[in-house]
Amino acid sequence: MNAVLQPPPRSLSMLTENDFDEVMVIEQAIYDFPWTRGNFLDSLRAGYPAEVLRTPQDGVVGYFVAMFGVDEVHLLNLSVAPALQRRGHARYMLDALRSIARAHRASQLWLEVRISNLNARGLYERYGFRNVGLRRGYYPARGRAREDAVVMSLQIPEAVHGLG
Ligand SMILES: CC(C)(COP(=O)(O)OP(=O)(O)OC[C@H]1O[C@@H](n2cnc3c(N)ncnc32)[C@H](O)[C@@H]1OP(=O)(O)O)[C@@H](O)C(=O)NCCC(=O)NCCS
């Protein structure tokens, strides 16, 4: 009999200060220039949409923070624990963020990503984001003055009311 492998159940909830210890472990493991607790706290105080993704066996496996604009949602941070990448967690969080954007009646999602971050750029491109610009010297960088950011954007089609 073939065993059917089920993906682990995962759940998203609003990021709170109680999650910061687990979030900071991931943040410091994956970025050369990690956000500080203060950055996360400022985002919560500003009312930004911010969620953590958990599985029963691993606790916090990822998180995202975004910001509402007039007609858009700007993704500020999307992260997945190093040992738990390539399991669809980022795609799952992007689905949730897209739903938040649609509920906010935003017409697009946009973000900046380091030009050298081919993993993240691959994720966003596969998800449907398009390159729409370059910000020169946007990020601090090790051993170099600054690093460029690629600006990417995803159009959010309007929900068709009554059809779900
Ligand atoms: C980028 C990141 C969020 C992706 O998270 P993830 O949970 O591993 O991504 P997913 O499993 O949902 O990947 C979805 C798709 O994105 C692409 N992708 C993701 N990671 C990739 C990688 N390392 N190499 C190539 N493609 C990748 C693939 O197409 C993948 O689909 P597949 O696995 O079916 O081929 C994660 O690698 C991460 O946290 N990196 C460090 C932090 C970071 O760079 N954040 C983004 C800042 S803008």
From TrEMBL:
Binding site for acetyl-CoA: N117
Enzyme Commission number(s): 2.3.1.266
Recorded superkingdom: Bacteria
Any one GO cellular component localisation term in the record: cytoplasm
Residue positions of the active site: E112 (proton acceptor), Y124 (proton donor)
Catalytic activity entry: N-terminal L-alanyl-[ribosomal protein bS18] + acetyl-CoA = N-terminal N(alpha)-acetyl-L-alanyl-[ribosomal protein bS18] + CoA + H(+)
Main location: cytoplasm
EC class (word): transferase
Entry keyword set: Acyltransferase, Cytoplasm, Ribonucleoprotein, Ribosomal protein, Transferase
InterPro entries (UniProt xref): AcTrfase_RimI/Ard1, Acyl_CoA_acyltransferase, GNAT_dom, RimI, YpeA/RimI_acetyltransf
Keyword Aminoacyl-tRNA synthetase (UniProt): no
All copies of domain N-acetyltransferase, residue ranges: 10-157
Single GO MF descriptor: protein-N-terminal-alanine acetyltransferase activity
Subcellular location: Cytoplasm
Pfam families: Acetyltransf_1 (PF00583)
Protein role: Acetylates the N-terminal alanine of ribosomal protein bS18.
Similarity field: Belongs to the acetyltransferase family. RimI subfamily.
Name under which the protein is recorded: [Ribosomal protein bS18]-alanine N-acetyltransferase
Organism of derivation: Methylibium petroleiphilum (strain ATCC BAA-1232 / LMG 22953 / PM1)
